[in-house]
Design goal:
Low-confidence stretches: none
Number of strands: 4
Oligomer: single chain
Order of helices and strands: HEHEHEHE
Distance between the termini: 32 Å
Strand order of the largest sheet: 1-2
Length: 111
């Protein structure tokens, strides 16, 4: 949001939530620690970079099934860190949905 002036995931998440009668809670998860850019980092470096970078609001997620959305999944480090924060705040389950997945440049393949 700060870099682009808009939240590209929200443009998909809000109508998806509305269409399905789900609660849209963009403030349930927040970055609590600044991290460096993930560009050019290895999978292990990305994981370390995202360690404890997010916090979740227990009041909003405790006991709930959460759908976590991101625009692009590369190694999954960000999604994993977010899921850990949500589960740590008491979410019953966390599923992730991404709009795109980065592949060959980072040594990833489709399985």
């Amino acid at each position: 949001m700060r870099e682009r002036g808009y939240n590209q995931v929200a443009l998909v998440a809000m109508p998806l939530a509305d269409l399905n009668g789900w609660q849209y809670a963009p403030r349930a998860l927040a970055r609590v620690r600044e991290t460096r850019s993930q560009v050019g980092l290895t999978a292990e470096q990305r994981k370390e970079n995202m360690q404890d970078a997010f916090g979740a609001e227990a009041r909003q997620v405790a006991g709930k099934d959460v759908l976590l959305m991101d625009d692009v999944a590369t190694t999954g480090a960000t999604l994993s860190a977010c899921a850990r924060a949500l589960l740590g705040a008491g979410a019953k389950s966390v599923c992730a949905l991404t709009l795109a997945r980065a592949l060959p440049h980072h040594g990833l393949t489709v399985v």
